[in-house]
Amino acid sequence: MNFNPSDLYGVLPALILAVGALAVLMSEVFLSTVKPALLGVGTGAAGAAQAQLPAGSAAAPPPPAPAPDRRYQACLAAAFAVAALWAAVEQFGDPTVSLFSGAAVSDGFGRVVAAVACGSLALSCLVAFSYLEALRATRGEFYALAMFSCAGMCLIAQATDLIVIFLSLEVLSLSLYALCAYLRRGKKPAEAAFKYFILGSFASAIFLYGAALAFGATGSTRLADVAAAVKALAQNQAVPGTGPLLLAAVALLTSGFAFKVAAVPFHMWVPDVYDGAPAPVTGFMAAGVKAAAFATLVRILVAGFGDPSAALGAHGWRELIVGLAVLTMLTGNLLAVPQRSVKRMLAYSSIAHAGYLLVAVASMASSASRADATQGLLFYLAAYGATIVGAFGVVAVIERKLQQDGLSDDLSSWAGLSEKHPALAAAMSLFMISLAGVPPTAGFMAKLTVFRSAIEAGLAPLAIFGVLTSVAGLYYYLRVVVYVYMYPQAKSGPVPGGKLFSAGLAIAGCALLVIWMGVQPGAFGAITQAAATSFAK
Fold first, then answer.
1. DSSP code of 42?
2. How many whole angstroms separate alpha carbon 455 and alpha carbon 146?
3. Beta-bridge partner residues of 161
4. What is the mean pLDDT of the chain?
């Protein structure tokens, strides 16, 4: 691999995030506390009272040193995330450029995914500020890990080499493992991180095994070389035995990323991890990881294994993706119906949305509909990211009150929210309606574009199945709205105030994006269309 300094411009969003993470970590070194007076004597009135104690009496313990002021760290992390978002947006109109001797690429597809990941990070940092301040758990490591994870998301969306994909995947994953266990008190965070780590390690091993088989069949880890081997196989010019190796490779590589996108039967980790991780981390993970993982899955299948009907069976990997989509849509929606925990309901609904996104991936198998399917995938990722970050932002605000009162995350705890906090109730209702795919929200336009591309690709039965499973989503999403507006007010008091401004700002921003993308989808649709057209060539 030859290093060209100009290639760094192509990965500028990831570089900005890495520099921001190092800056936040370095800022921790220079934080200082206001120390009490020497010899254990406090300052001010407390110190004077302690100095007047009679001789021989037990001295009162010195007052604890105040914690350092870390409120700037959330703003600093959000600022770097916005700068990375700006860098990705500025490159939207640039031509496609190969980076690092073909190990990565800077194209419209990767730039849109990077923008979605950076936007999710910026909004999640604002939500995390209020959440962590209320729990007195603010540390620079939280924001640094989030930025390192987002940098991995940006890199993996651009990677065109299986080794670079694996390295980016580990940067993305290791940071999230730590973030899931950030609140060390209690069993849920430790359980969430442990399950995520163990199952994630298995998924990484499966991916590496698939990469090894691809290398054995082609002698290279570059996706372009894999595509050339698939083409040679279709023309009966490949070395004997290459076909089974490539077929096993695509199955294992898909299985490895099916874990990351939460596709059935690789979904077992999702409910416990979403429930045990801090709500801001869950929102960021649901939006960013899904975007990065689907982007990589598409690159492997489309750019690496090319036309599936040419070499790998009658329909090749398309049949594999169709089967995963059917199982994922059905299982996610059915298991979300009986859930009374809002976080676990959103976890199972995330599985269902992975199924809808797999419909778009399956539609890319047809070269005639590949551009429309890619546009639908990118639009869906952006719409889902704005909606789910906002939904978990509201959950983070409510979760603070539930933890204070010792209540569980049950639907009954959301009763009467419209009477106590009408703004939060309206925002949560909007996000639920968008996730259900009701117009005029971003969720409706996202599902419309995905199902339309499936029909154009000759997958009309799959699109109809997706519409039918979406009906189940109406029940469990609108049930939250019913509890918020139609059930009597709960006995618990209002959500504690004070530091809700940043969370409210993030929730309002997500709500505006959901409405804007639903009412005026053409503005963002033009960006995704340009990215999809260049990717489909």
1. -
2. 38
3. 222
4. 83
